[in-house]
Amino acid sequence: MRSLRLEPALDERVRQAASVEGASVSEFLRRAAAERADRTLASRNSERLADVIGVVHGDRPQARRTGEALGDLLAERRAKR
Questions:
Q1: CA–CA dist 25, 10 (Å, integer)
Q2: Contacting residues for 67 by C-beta, under 8 A, at least 6 apart
Q3: What is the distance of C-alpha 56 from the center of its chain?
Q4: How far apart are CA 37 and CA 68, in angstroms?
Q5: Which of 11, 46, 59, 79 would disulfide-bridge 6, Cβ 3.0–4.6 Å?
């Protein structure tokens, strides 16, 4: 179980938002925390860089080996978590 303190202005915004959603403040905060945790955990470096990993193309084999090495390194780090 966690406890937290909110600034008065944020506390009021949270109360209003929970009311609009028809949820208790506790339920609203639980959902918000779960959504933020999921978003944060989903955006690890390998996933954030997925669209650029391996995009460098060239006529030199070093670029290919570098991309493979980076992929291997990220896979090792992911496996350690």
A1: 12
A2: 53, 54, 56
A3: 25
A4: 30
A5: 11
Higher pLDDT pick, 9 / 71: 9
- Please state which of the ranges 4-13, 28-37, 59-68 shows the lowest mean pLDDT: 59-68
The residue with tokens 């955990």 is 41
Question: CA torsion angle for 64, 66, 70, 73 (degrees, to 10)?
Answer: 120
Amino acid at residue number 8: P
Residue type, 41: L
pTM, rounded to two decimals:
0.54
Residue 61 pLDDT more than 90? Answer: no
Least Cα distance to 3 among 41, 23, 33 occurs for 33
| Distance from the first to the final alpha carbon of the chain | 24
